Amino acid sequence: MRMEAIPVIQPQEEMSLIDLFQVCVRRRRLILAVIAACLLIGIAAIVFMTPRYEVEARIDRPYENEVALLNLGRTSATGLGSFSSEQVFGYFAREVLSGQAFERFFQELYLPSLSEEQRQAPEARLRKAAQTLVVVRPPDERRKGQLPLYSVKLAADDPEKAVQWTTGFLERAAHDAKQKLIADARAGLEVSIRNARRDLEELRLTAQRKRLDRAQQLREALTVANAVGLRDPQVTAVRPPSSDQASPFMDGSSLYARGAKSLAAELGVLEDRVDDDAFISGLRDTESKLRLWESVLQSDAGKFDVYRLDAEIVTPVDPVKPRKELILTLGLTLGAIGGILLAFIVEAISSSRAKLPPSQAGALFRERPAERSIQADRAHSVA
Predict the structure, then answer these.
(1) Whole-angstrom distance, CA of residue 39 vs CA of residue 46
(2) Which of 54, 115, 283, 305 is least enclosed by beta carbons within 10 angstroms?
(3) What is the pTM of this model?
(4) Which structural domain, as residue segments, surrounds residue 288?
């Protein structure tokens, strides 16, 4: 029985750091070439990439004196509540986070900055590109010890454009917030004015009807007094005609007892009266409030601030993208790693070819992998 030979695996020689260093020295040109290629790619990326400049504005609520004009006429006399700076800033905060603010930025600032060729792109793609340029962040309440400020960041390919976009975005949001705040304030004020006018009309109409009713009662009583020949009021110890309110003949049945002279005099006064305002209780107070409300409605409430910049907007000097130092460092690192790995691969291939005789080395690389495997099995069996 023929025993098959057991292949003996020869341990490979371990490479020391000195060997690795020698390989790098021998293949230094290859490593430097790979590093140079990666650096050239990084430089090309820096040159051809569109720069991106970013401007950040941190905004806070306005001071109380900056919303003073909005509260003009809103006192206890008018019964109108005043607006606090927190309420005013709430309008701006909702507006700056709304889709309408982005829509105005897209239509009025972003699209006009594009060329005719760029505008031909699909609108969905343009909107997606514009959304990456605007970032609005509300304050993080979890961070204690920091001011609760809103952050508005806008980016552009030019530093001046970034500043203009940031300023324009905030101005448009502030304008829309002011308009909505004024509209809400005017809406409540106009309702109060309409109600006051209706109250005045109702008071005057009621007073007029009461006067007409009184005149009708006096006419009937005068007719009765003339019919019975009663010219002077009937005075008794029990019922003195001191006043109509104290007199028992206030009702229409015994009003004639006042006498024809008294009835005719009062009737003449009522018929000659053209204005009942002096006899209407609470009329003047309502008119005073109405005048104040109308003056508040006609006053200019547009000169107030809805937000305050925590710091001035500064024109950026260096772009946030591309990051030149990062790209060059990454190119150098990848080039060095890739060059060393490629040097080791080339060195391994060269060492393998050097250990074989010249004739076998050439045949080995000319044969296919399957043929080399079959020949190797046959040589092993013969051994």
Answers:
(1) 10
(2) 115
(3) 0.62
(4) 208-298
